[in-house]
Amino acid sequence: MSDSSFEQIGDIFTEALAEVISTATGFSFDIQPALDQDSFDDIVGIMGLYGESRGMLFISMNEALMRVLCSYMIGVTLENISREDIEDALCELVNMTAGSAKRQLNGEDDAFTLSPPFVMRGQNLSVVHKHRVHVVARRLGNGGKSLMMRVVFY
To answer: What is the C-alpha separation between 47 and 152, in angstroms, rounded?
Structure first.
């Protein structure tokens, strides 16, 4: 698969994520240039993509932003959002984003199945690749708030 094909699939994931956030929360996020490809914010939702093209989807943001998105998603005030609520909401964002992208790619040679989503938390998280991979990274922003989406194909 060519680099442009990976970029096109990355565009589909990016549009899916922006649409999912808009539908689930009412917020509009614009696509911005990606920053450092190695670092993640302190909470990351992850899902495996399996098919002819295999990969991983990562959606990363700081916990304060995820708390706000979660509040709008589940209709609970910020002070009543639990750690579990935040993790469940992020898993749902990842799941809906990957599901939407998969539907858009249905019928293409690059169709894939999805793993269950999961969340990682921590400071200075990074992903190290031991072999050649293709990384499509996008930053979505709204005012001073932003999140990172990365799709890694191997």
So the answer is: 11
Which domains are assigned to the chain?
3-153 (3.40.1550.10)
The answer to whether residues 38 and 20 touch, using CB atoms and an 8 Å cutoff, is: no
SS3 assignment, position 127: coil
Q: Assign 68 to helix, strand or coil.
A: helix
Q: For residue 135, what are the contacts with CB-CB under 8 A and spacing of at least 6?
A: 37, 150, 151, 152, 153
Summarised one tens digit per residue, pLDDT across range 14-68 is 999 999 999 999 999 998 876 655 578 889 999 999 877 788 999 999 999 999 9
Residue 89 to residues 3, 9, 14, 82, 109, Cα–Cα distance (Å): 32, 24, 18, 11, 31
Global confidence as pTM: 0.90
